[in-house]
Structure formats: C-alpha cells, structure tokens
Design brief:
With 144 residues, the protein is an alpha+beta fold. It has one domain: 2-Layer Sandwich (HIT family, subunit A). Strands 1-2-3-5-4 form a five-stranded antiparallel beta sheet. The termini are far apart. Bound molecules: guanosine-5'-monophosphate.
Length: 144
C-alpha cells in the first residue's frame, strides 16, 4: 500500500478498535488504545493507536489530534519502562509499505531493549502465546 491510498476501515487495528477481533490491552482512554503486539520483536513489544482518527500514518493525522496521542505514547512508554525495567526503549513508527508498514492505521511501536538481547526482524516475528502476553500486559497495567 502506498503512502497515499485511502484509509481502509477494515484494517486490523480498526477491527480491534471496533471489538471485532480481540486484543490484550494495557491502556485505554478516549484518545488511544495500547496493546501487546502478537508477533513481538522483543519482550514487551507494545503498540499504541489513536482512537476516533482515520489516519493511516503520521503524515495524515490531523495535527490537533497529534499532541494528545503523543502524550499517550509517552505515558505508555513510561509504564512499560517502569514495569519491565529495560536498558533502553525504541519508539518507532513506519509510513507506507516501502518503509515497512504492514497495518495501515497510525501506530507507534514501543520496543524495550535488554542488554544482550537482539530485536527480531520487523513483521517477521513468531506469534506469541496469548497466556504469556496476558501476564506481561498485567505487569504493564499495574505500572500506570
Ligand atoms: P507495522 O508493520 O504496520 O509497523 O506494524 C504492525 C504491527 O502489528 C506488527 O508489529 C505486527 O506484529 C502487529 N500485528 C499484526 N496483526 C496483529 C494483530 O492481529 N494483533 C496484534 N496485537 N498485533 C498485530
């Protein structure tokens, strides 16, 4: 999908927001939803998506929605750090399939980095056990 295609209301994250497919959540309010990536690149890989915004990427999100959303990205990153105590955090985002984007609803990745542990390649991770993700999510939820 190019940078300039129309927003697809049936993308996976739109379905998660509608409750059509399940997710393992760590945070939700009127602005954003954060949940565990089911193909994690690293322990604690968390995604955060804006609500009530038909934005495919960072370029087409209305600017007035960006500030509140980025505040939630920071809030979730702080909770992930507090819960999992990584040695570093990568916070990243892709725009367009050529850049590596695979789901076309704006999202940031929060990727905890631990000394000695390598990141798995983007969009090539194996599916995680939902029971393991649920335990991890509970630790993050308790850190808010
Ligand atoms: P992108 O490639 O668009 O930057 O990131 C999309 C992310 O969504 C990937 O890291 C991928 O593992 C994750 N993902 C894809 N499908 C699902 C799903 O159904 N549930 C969850 N929780 N994550 C998903």
């Amino acid at each position: 999908m190019t940078l300039h295609s129309a927003y697809d209301p049936d993308n996976i994250f739109a379905k998660i927001l509608r409750g059509d497919i399940p997710h393992i959540g760590v945070y939700e309010d009127e602005i954003a939803l954060a949940f565990m990536d089911i193909f994690p690149q690293t322990y604690g890989h968390t995604l955060i998506i804006p609500k009530q915004v038909r934005a495919r990427n960072l370029l087409d999100v209305p600017s007035e929605k960006l500030g509140p959303y980025m505040e939630r990205v920071q809030r979730v990153a702080i909770a992930v750090e507090k819960a999992l105590k990584p040695d570093g955090l990568i916070i990243t985002q892709f725009n367009g399939s050529l850049a590596g984007q695979t789901v076309f609803h704006l999202h940031f990745h929060i990727l905890p980095k631990f000394t000695g542990a390598r990141l798995k390649p983007h969009a090539e991770g194996a599916q995680a056990d939902p029971a393991d993700l649920e335990k991890l999510a509970e630790r993050i939820r308790l850190a808010f």
